[in-house]
Each structure stands twice: as C-alpha cells, then as structure tokens.
Amino acid sequence: AQKITQTQPGMFVQEKEAVTLDCTYDTSDQSYGLFWYKQPSSGEMIFLIYQGSYDEQNATEGRYSLNFQKARKSANLVISASQLGDSAMYFCAMTQRGSNYKLTFGKGTLLTVNP
Amino acid sequence: EADIYQTPRYLVIGTGKKITLECSQTMGHDKMYWYQQDPGMELHLIHYSYGVNSTEKGDLSSESTVSRIRTEHFPLTLESARPSHTSQYLCASSVRRSTDTQYFGPGTRLTVL
C-alpha cells in the first residue's frame, strides 16, 4: 500500500523568503510519480509540479522546485520568494503503476505568508 | 491548463432529496475521477472511470453512483441525500501519458440539512 506523510500541519513564512514543505512517501513499487497541488480557500486543486521516480534531476516549475531524495523517500516542495498569494493548503500526492495510477494524498500543510 | 467544469459550485438541499453533481471536460481525457474532501482534510477517491461505460469504486466507500456514457461527462448522483453527505466533491481528469497528471475542476460544496 502506498502512503503519503506530511508532518507539518501549518507553516508560516515571511513574504519574499523561501519555504520548504515536507513530504515523505512509502511504496514498494519501483515506478511511481509524485505530485504537489495547491488548494486556495476557494477550494479548487491546482497542479504545481511533478517528479517521476526515474527522473534523475529535481523538477522545477517557476518558483516551485521539488527536492527529490529517493533513498530517503522524500519529495519536499520548495517555494522561493514567497508571495501573499501563496497562502493556501498544499497537498503532496503519489501514483504508482501497481495501483493503476490512482492518486493518494497526504493530509496537507497550511501555508501562511506574512507581509 | 485544463478545462474541466463542475456544476453547481454550491448546493444546499434538504434530507432525502435526489441530487446530481455534474462534471465535464473538454480535453478528451479518458480517465475521470471523483474525490470527496471534508474541510481541512485530505482528498479521498470515491469513484473513477477509465473510459466510456467503465466505472469503478474508489478507496472510500460512498453511497453515490456515477455513470460514463460520454467521454466528456461524468456525473455523480446521490439518490437520497443525508447530512453525512455534506462535503466538498472534486472531479478530475487525466490522460494516459508519462505523467498521468490529474487536473481538477473547481469543486462542488454540498450541504445537506
């Protein structure tokens, strides 16, 4: 069974600073994908970034980067130069071939960006 | 960017009513999904479909039912709503590519009185 753990229920960061949101995962499958989604208070889920288990380089998308440490089974999200609009819930999620690519979500981290 | 739509966005109804939550996508994605999410909690998969006339139950047991008669349309129905069904329902779709990224609709916030 696959499992996603996000140990930070809430995080605070000052505007323009960088922040790291933690995510660890557990799977016995060799082929899997890791995702981060952002959920503002309005409720929609916004896809941010993806990392494949066979990707050797860390994924980056604008101000978002994924710090992928395969041996530690961690996939932390780094947001650089935080903006007020980054305040939201952030969910780490995983798919694996053995589960037909169904997404399993962590419990989320509520990020608050202070001015 | 993904084009996936859900209606209604908000719904308040009384116990015992039959409701249908609509979800449609214009991207021709084969796979579609329904998730249930209580406030401040993680998402749980309740139904999914890998194509027309294909539907499966997800990891979380749900009294709702779904149908997939057309590729672009994946409605969810509750025959008799109860207060325990109060939640947010999110629809998503994806295409079988290397990443299989799921794109979500805006969600429906359902309140059953």
Give your account of this protein's structure:
The complex is a heterodimer of chains A (115) and B (113). Chain A is an all-beta fold. Chain A contains no helices and 12 strands. Chain A has strands at residues 3-5, 10-14, 19-21, 24-26, 32-39, 46-52, 60-61, 64-69, 74-79, 88-96, 104-105, 109-114. The radius of gyration of chain A is 14 Å and the shape is globular. Chain A starts with a strand and ends with a strand. By secondary structure, chain B is mostly beta strands. The relative contact order of chain B is 0.34. Chain B contains no helices and 11 strands. In chain B, a hairpin with a 2-residue loop joins strand 5 (44-51) and strand 6. The N and C termini of chain B lie far apart (36 Å). Chain B has strands at residues 4-7, 10-13, 19-25, 31-37, 44-51, 54-57, 65-66, 76-78, 87-94, 103-104, 108-112. In chain B, the strands form 2 sheets. In chain B, strands 2, 4, 5, 6, 9, 10 and 11 form a 7-stranded mixed β-sheet that branches. In chain B, strands 1-3-8-7 form a 4-stranded antiparallel β-sheet, with no helix packed on it. Classes of the chains: A mainly beta (115), B mainly beta (113). The interface between A and B is medium-sized, with 24 and 28 residues.
